[in-house]
Amino acid sequence: MAKVLLFNGSPHTKGCTARALNEMIKVFESEGVETKIVEIGNKSVRGCISCNTCGERGKCVFDDLVNETAPLFEEADGVVIGSPVYYGSPNGTLLAFLDRLFYSTPFSKQMKIGAAVVSCRRGGNTASFDALNKYFTISSMPVASSTYWNQVHGFTPEDVEKDLEGLQTMRNLAKNMSFMIKAVSDAKDKYGLPENEHAFFTSFPDGK
Known about the structure:
The chain is α/β, with parallel strands linked by helices. Helices cover 43% and strands 16% of the residues. Helix 5 (125-137) links the parallel strand 5 and strand 6. The longest helix has 28 residues, at 164-191. It is globular, with a radius of gyration of 17 Å. The N and C termini lie far apart (51 Å). 38% of the residues are buried.
């Protein structure tokens, strides 16, 4: 069975972001896709210290939620990252978690389907959406889209209930993501995965 891992970057486990993710979960379940939600925003997660110990150990030097989540990430066929908007950006705790999770995990993320979801009262949504999508686009992860930017509006979950277009966007996003996961699975069996090159790492060490 296909698996989707959902990250709730909000400290509120039943807040606006959770309401958006739950709208997607209902669709995933109807599509026969297994789901698991990981609460990030209410945890204490420190940022990366660029020690590169993960390159030797294959896991982060800080043994916390990042290392606990890594096996779930490896098994997942798709990942949904949900976040509220704080000062025009995703939640800082979530960003610290994602920096360490994506950098410290040695397994390939190639062709895992990614989707970012943001929740805001009014503004900062597209900037946050853009920041979250960058984790996918440097990891060979196709990005799932919907019929509008993947966002809901509201200050409370009750407000989000009134955002009918936002909830519709979540449902369409989950349908598209389910299709993409199944299509990639079929194509992998038929053609295999694309071969990625890793020979070059340009950092201009000669100073020129």
